[in-house]
Design a protein that fits this description.
The protein is mainly beta. The protein has one domain: 7 Propeller (Methylamine Dehydrogenase, Chain H), CATH 2.130.10.10. Helix content is about 10%, strand content about 40%. It has helices at about 1-15, 30-45, 360-370, and strands at about 90, 95-105, 115, 120-125, 130-135, 140-145, 155-160, 165-170, 175-180, 185-190, 200, 205-210, 215-220, 225-230, 245, 250-255, 260-265, 270-275, 295, 300-305, 310, 320, 330-335, 335-340, 345-350, 355-360, 380-385, 390-395, 395-400, 405-410, 420-425, 425-430, 435-440. The longest helix has 18 residues, at about 30-45. It is globular, with a radius of gyration of 22 Å.
Length: about 450
């Protein structure tokens, strides 16, 4: 009986919308018309389908119209920009190590790095904020906010940068603003719970979430709470990290419970929400997992434990639900989604009709290209550069696929990749396992 009640409550919650502007659910008549679709969505969320594992060759007549490659000069967000989506970037493609720095820290540095005004910004487990000048080829700022009583605590700093200000939200519960040019703290606040997500900057607001799945809107000028939105908390903490994307002044928040929220950044009110968790049973084996939300035009893209969802941005309606998922966020270009699934299939999908244009076994494609035995790869990240799909492996190999999914090149970088790479002014930048900055042109 309890399970039945929980089922009914969750269905009712998923049907709720707080958006009075669109007029989608502003009358009982409209609600009754959509009732069947709501239950259909819920049924699809809880139906376990066999994982997609098909090889689908590209049609010989298929022509992919890509976007113009751009030269990128800054990386102010850990997921590249507000939408978390990559664009077609210019890369010099010589694949030669042009520079390697000295070790910048003795402690483990965070996986994500930023770049602004020809500086590389990173943090380490001691709580150091490190600013490395690409011009001077040296550390220009190294600052630690924390007192001795926090010395033995492993610090996880989530950062975002705007102009010369670095905004930090940590796992201890501190939120602060640091001016790296003046080398001073502008303001600092201590909250009762640690933070556990990326930070987004929206006009005068900082947006982030706590480890209890509370979503916060802070005043960017002083760190005061402007709005706190509590969401579902999970009893057992998993490896999934809450994440936020912004598109058209709407924040999209995915929490560890598997719920996706849309919030208007102006009035800070919930527009809609839905749950993408595959089960109501929160045993450790059934905990929610996924990767970063990606926003593109009027759609939201989320990959969870087993499925990839395409969701309409205004209403929260599920447009497509595909039975494949990935460890890394997809790339959306024009009308297509590019993804490498958990079972190592390179997939190109039309985001409008859900059609799989092609699907190839990455491991087999690489083996065929090298004329060697098939082995399993471990992916670090993917980019779209110079109209090609660039796949970086954890062992520092790089694979180029053309837009039709055919392997064009396989090579190994001369420096080992540790952090997630970024592309600045046509160069690939990352830190190796010795905390040395590498620049590959």
């Amino acid at each position: 009986m309890k399970l039945l009640n929980a089922f009914v409550i969750l269905v009712l919650l998923q049907s709720c919308s707080f958006d009075n502007k669109t007029g989608i659910w502003n009358s009982e008549k409209n609600l009754s018309k959509k009732e069947n679709n709501i239950f259909k969505d819920f049924e699809s969320l809880n139906t376990k389908n066999e994982t997609f594992n098909k090889i689908i060759p590209a049609d010989g007549n298929f022509k992919f119209k890509t976007t113009k490659a751009i030269r990128n000069y800054e990386w102010k967000d850990i997921y590249y920009d507000q939408t978390n989506n990559f664009v077609n970037l210019i890369y010099s493609d010589q694949n030669k190590l042009s520079f390697k720095s000295k070790k910048i820290s003795r402690r483990t540095i965070k996986d994500y790095i930023l770049s602004v005004n020809e500086n590389i910004i990173t943090t380490d487990q001691s709580g150091n904020i490190i600013v490395y000048s690409l011009k001077k080829k040296e550390i220009v700022t190294k600052y630690n906010f924390y007192k001795k009583k926090y010395k033995k605590i492993k610090k996880i700093l989530n950062i975002a940068v705007e102009d010369n200000k670095i905004f930090v939200a940590d796992n201890i519960g501190y939120l602060y603003s640091f001016d790296y040019k003046e080398n001073k703290i502008l303001w600092a606040k201590k909250y009762k719970v640690g933070f556990r997500s990326n930070i987004k900057i929206s006009k005068n607001k900082l947006i982030t979430s706590s480890e209890n799945n509370d979503l916060f809107f802070f005043n960017k000028k002083n760190g005061d709470v402007m709005k706190l939105i509590p969401t579902e908390e999970t009893i057992i903490k998993n490896q999934f990290i809450n994440n936020i994307a912004i598109n058209d002044n709407i924040s999209f928040f995915l929490n560890t419970y598997g719920s996706l929220y849309a919030i208007n950044n102006e009035d800070m009110r919930i527009v809609w929400f839905l749950n993408l968790n595959q089960t109501l049973d929160l045993n450790p084996s059934n905990l929610f997992s996924g990767n970063q939300i990606v926003a593109y035009k009027n759609k939201i893209f989320v990959s969870t434990n087993q499925h990839t969802y395409i969701i309409e941005q205004i209403s929260g309606t599920i447009i497509h639900r595909k039975n494949f998922s990935s460890e890394i966020k997809p790339i959306i270009l024009k009308d297509y989604l590019i993804s490498i699934t958990k079972n190592d299939l390179l997939v190109l999908m039309n985001i409008n009709n859900g059609e799989i244009i092609y699907s190839y076994d990455v491991n087999q494609m690489i083996a065929n290209f090298l004329d060697t035995k098939k082995k399993k790869i471990e992916i670090k990240n993917i980019f779209f550069v110079n109209n090609k799909i660039m796949v970086l492996l954890k062992n520092s190999y790089v694979i180029y696929f053309n837009i039709n999914g055919i392997v064009e090149d396989v090579f190994k970088l001369s420096s080992k990749i540790n952090t997630n790479p970024i592309i600045i002014n046509g160069s690939l930048l990352f830190f190796d396992f010795k905390n040395k900055l590498s620049i590959v042109d």
